[in-house]
Amino acid sequence: MPNSTTPGVEAEFAAHPVADSPHAPDRATLLRAYRLMRTSDELARLYEVNKAVTAKYVHATARGHEAIQLATAFHLRPTDYVTPYYRDDAMLLGLGLAPYELMLQLMAKRDDPFSGGRTYYSHPSLRREGFPVIPHQSSATGMQAIPATGMAHGLHYLEGQGLLQTADQQPVVVCSIGDGAMTEGEVSEALQMAVLHQLPIIYLVQDNDWGISATSREMRAMDAYEFAAGFKGLERLRVDGADFGASYAGMADAFDYVRRTRRPVLVHAKCPLLGHHTSGVRREWYRGDNLAQHTTNDPLPRFHRQLLDQGVASEEELQQIGDEAISLVKSDYERALAAPDPEPSTFADHEFASPFVTEEAGERAPAGALKTTLVDAALHAVDDILREFPEALFYGQDVGGELGGVFREAALLAKKYGDARVFNTPIQEAYIVGSTAGMSAVGAKAIVEIQFADYIWPSLNQLVEELSKSCYLTNGKFPVQSLIRVPIGAYGGGGPYHSGSIESTLLTIRGIKVVYPSNAADMKGLMRAAFLDPNPVVMLEHKGLYWSKVPGTEDAKTIEPAAGYVIPLGKAAIAQQPDPEKLAQGETCVVITYGMGVHWAKAASRQVPGQVEIIDLRTLNPLDFEAVEAAVRRHGKVLVLTEEPVLNSFAESLAGRIQRTCFQQLDAPVFTLGAANLPAIALNVELERQMLPNAEKVATAVRELLEY
């Protein structure tokens, strides 16, 4: 191949006549492919004829792409992993799924094997004996490349550690993608990591020259094959995606190469687009004569002629196969129409997988232990996890090598556990976060780090679309175990790109958990619980608490818990008790807060001794609202304190909820206090001080509340 960096690879991928190929399909394979191609064609035809029913929900079909999809499916093994994209229904048929099963998803029926009626047609997710694993993915317009590469990355890691039970099968990941989606920046991140780490993955690019109504000339400067030349070490192969024999031989070459070398390949398959982009798009409005041009390359009549010319089957045999496909699709359609819809009461099932940790366990303050800082507690918690769980690995920007993180929060871990387990990544926040979904699907357990909270934004696409929805949209089959560490908050003039607070944005993302410790002991216990949780967890770690150097944060240093200490997520703590007599006399209030707010509240409360209870939420989602309500009822006066700007924040939302549920117990409006409503933290420390809450501002609010 033109960009090959491996001796002998060009010869392996050299074009050859299909008949002379060592991978030429036998007669049984050819007839199976024809049967499934006819089945796929009939699915598309039936959907069009019955579009009043079938187009109730949006769908796309494989028309024009059947040959390459079936060729790919026939080379996949049960030990492999595959991420089909939204028009890959022929690939699903090739894997052994029945038309009936696909129709159950088309009509959003209860027994849809992928999502139970929750997501679109040909958006599969499958764990079934004898089938490749198909994890959740979104609508697959480029975003799937990162989780798929994460799967290959996880396999690479587990195989290197001797932890892969199917290593002798040389499992491969296939990422199916359209050529239009190859222009996504996240695809480049995936290709970069596949080459950098030499991962066992095939990127199958199906190129039909269209992206809805946009032509290839409008969308790209080059096709995917040409684009891949820039990634040295990514082998490339062109195939005629409309010819089954050529596709089968080409995919055989690709699978053989990846299984043997454990290196990545990109296969560029040119296909005609014979159907609509999706059922919601009127192709006649923009295709013009183009549809007729594409029809001349229809894989089905082309394959039909080849089978006759090669003497594989007679016209009568092929007609019988076609009649059987029509009959099967028709009968499956009638069955699917009659299948039950989902039970409405199940709509909320599988937001999260059940947590592993439900009770506090281990020694929080073992005899003879010394006080430690929050940053060291985090370091030691990760160290304990890596030592105990060989499937765990830790990566992000600058966490590997000598530095061990810009805050030394991973100091010496790479030296201790090796570069395969603790390593640096490029500046690719999307890959850092999205790859954890793939890691989780293959059984690796990733701890990753975003260097500063202000840098998390490029990862939100992956966090929202790939991680947060996976458990819910797969009916609980694919929860994503992912621990994402994020240093957060303002600290000593960090300025606009190193000081932000992001929890309110994260808390609008359903399906993730958000944790925010305020002291070393909680950090260690929550870190372990977050790792053990089978769901995506974002651990927010305030930089100003890492070393307790900020005046008033001395209490962030605590006795270090023993290894194995764990705190369940979703349990608040009472960080400070009020004086019982003042509580009985109605002279108290409660401050509900987290992170740095706990320490501001403690310092402020010294001005009103015994009159302030402090609730440390510790976990923002799931929220321990029972603890909040109980505290509100004890005091009747509440301040919700945050470091974020208050307007439209989590704090303001929590205050509104308290006001709604505890109105009759309140003796004053629920107060809120946070940063000024400005778009960024200023660099100058005096400007920063003016913007942020502090102990004095909290004390002023508390006095006003107590006097209300």
TrEMBL record:
<dbReference type="GO" id="GO:0009083">
    <property type="term" value="P:branched-chain amino acid catabolic process"/>
</dbReference>
<keyword id="KW-0786">Thiamine pyrophosphate</keyword>
<dbReference type="InterPro" id="IPR009014">
    <property type="entry name" value="Transketo_C/PFOR_II"/>
</dbReference>
<dbReference type="InterPro" id="IPR001017">
    <property type="entry name" value="DH_E1"/>
</dbReference>
<dbReference type="InterPro" id="IPR029061">
    <property type="entry name" value="THDP-binding"/>
</dbReference>
<dbReference type="Pfam" id="PF00676">
    <property type="entry name" value="E1_dh"/>
</dbReference>
<dbReference type="GO" id="GO:0007584">
    <property type="term" value="P:response to nutrient"/>
</dbReference>
<dbReference type="Pfam" id="PF02779">
    <property type="entry name" value="Transket_pyr"/>
</dbReference>
<comment type="function">
    <text>E1 component of the 2-oxoglutarate dehydrogenase (OGDH) complex which catalyzes the decarboxylation of 2-oxoglutarate, the first step in the conversion of 2-oxoglutarate to succinyl-CoA and CO(2).</text>
</comment>
<dbReference type="InterPro" id="IPR005475">
    <property type="entry name" value="Transketolase-like_Pyr-bd"/>
</dbReference>
<dbReference type="InterPro" id="IPR033248">
    <property type="entry name" value="Transketolase_C"/>
</dbReference>
<keyword id="KW-0560">Oxidoreductase</keyword>
<dbReference type="GO" id="GO:0003863">
    <property type="term" value="F:branched-chain 2-oxo acid dehydrogenase activity"/>
</dbReference>
<feature type="domain" description="Transketolase-like pyrimidine-binding">
    <location>
        <begin position="372"/>
        <end position="548"/>
    </location>
</feature>
<dbReference type="Pfam" id="PF02780">
    <property type="entry name" value="Transketolase_C"/>
</dbReference>
<protein>
    <recommendedName>
        <fullName>3-methyl-2-oxobutanoate dehydrogenase (2-methylpropanoyl-transferring)</fullName>
        <ecNumber>1.2.4.4</ecNumber>
    </recommendedName>
</protein>
